[in-house]
Amino acid sequence: MHISSLFIQCVSGSPSHTVKMFPFSLLSPTNWTLLAVFLTLGILAFDSECHAKYGDVWGLFDFRQPVLIVADPEIIKTVLVKECYSVFTNRREAIGDPCLKDAITNVKDERFVAPYSLDAVTSASFSVEANSINDPDDPINVHIKKILNFKMWILLLLMMFPFAENFLKALKIEIMPSLSLKYFYNIIKRFKDEHQAEESPRQPNVKTSPLVKVFFNLDVLLRLTEHEMLSQAFIFIFAGTDTTSFTITYLLYNLATNPDALQTLQEEIDASIPRDAPISYEDVIGLQYLDQVICESMRFIPTVPRIERRCKKTSQFHGITIPEGTMVGIPVSMLHMDPRFWRSPELFRPERFNKDSGEEVNPYAYMPFGLGPRNCVGMRYAVLTMKMVIVRLLQDYSVETCKDTVIPLELSWMFQPKQPIKLQFVPRKQ
Ligand code: HEM
């Protein structure tokens, strides 16, 4: 899962002109109140509290890092879209395994511009054979779990003391297990080598998907090194795994707690797709209500609650001076619940995304996949995967709450469910 701002020092900012970042004071009750809100109620309550106190722009320190949070759609547009290439191209400095520093999520400036064309190839998922659904001990499953359960305390330590990286390296302490990372690099490399062998004139009859072909020719197409290319392949697996599974889980939870929406969705699926027939791309794309349910579920509980860009040169926008090195954060989860942009935001209403509903969606207040040139490259692939899974599941099962379902859902300060989400699947009558 993507981790957003980790708060330690809270400060106030004037809504216009230079936003002042006041140093954290142990004696300041304001800071402690907000810190308590952050740790107990989580990022949404924290952002909402700050927003109520300071308006659309406020500042804080993530340990040593100044962060400016902006909730004004015009400023968001400037940061994520208009000035993306000139000022706000990059994210936070990558912390941790140097192996991943050339992945698309971390690369900077002109190195980003090249891999960005990868958008065209996101559908090329890697057909590495795995049996992780049926076999929890499948090596792929074991290694991805090790990587996703990365050590948060090391990340926090490095945010406070970036210079500790070499010290930890010497002690062989790592955020992500390098053995597991190497495991993935090796299977992707093996897959690439096999693909290139298939391409050789000695095996003219072997056919590879054109998209996979593009992906494994990135070194030639975009002049990426082999390591850079393998990193993109790895990050696609890594960035797409937890995000997609969390989003599907939230979606099922929202359907179970909103049986009317579930029924409307099942009626749409039943009317459009025969039960035992294979599902085509056109079938799922045609399901309008399913699309609305996914949009609404990702508004209601966005998997990534905050996105960020780093300001690479001191600039002035909308009357605010943003110093070089400042992180600009967009409070996605708060914007998705802001009554300025949504009618009854606390209600799960897929109808609001119906084009004929008359309710307009402000594109700068809705960004479950981020926004602008640096948004999620896996978006279309993820939506398609989710649609396929949901259709297949709901053709045969209804999803309901049970005695162990926690209602309402409680999210931790890391924006993850405090308790496991438990639902029951009831077979549908044939
Ligand atoms: C429902 C599932 C997913 C969600 C909610 C999600 C969400 C996001 C968000 C919010 C960002 C940051 C965008 C920004 O900063 O503006 C992002 C970036 C990214 N995502 Fe996803 N994502 C999902 C699935 C995937 C999948 C399946 C892949 C790969 C196939 C993927 C690959 C990436 C990559 C490579 C980036 C970095 C893009 C860049 O730096 O240019 N994501 N994602």
TrEMBL record:
Keywords noted in UniProt: Heme, Iron, Membrane, Metal-binding, Monooxygenase, Oxidoreductase, Transmembrane, Transmembrane helix
PROSITE patterns: CYTOCHROME_P450
EC numbers, comma separated: 1.14.14.1
Family matches, as Pfam families: p450
Matching InterPro entries: Cyt_P450 (IPR001128), Cyt_P450_CS (IPR017972), Cyt_P450_E_grp-I (IPR002401), Cyt_P450_sf (IPR036396), Cytochrome_P450_3A (IPR050705)
One of the record's GO molecular function terms: iron ion binding
Enzyme class name: oxidoreductase
Cofactor: heme
UniProt binding sites for heme: C376
Chain segments annotated as transmembrane: 26-46, 153-171
Family listed: Belongs to the cytochrome P450 family.
Name the record gives this protein: unspecific monooxygenase
Organism from which the protein derives: Dissostichus mawsoni
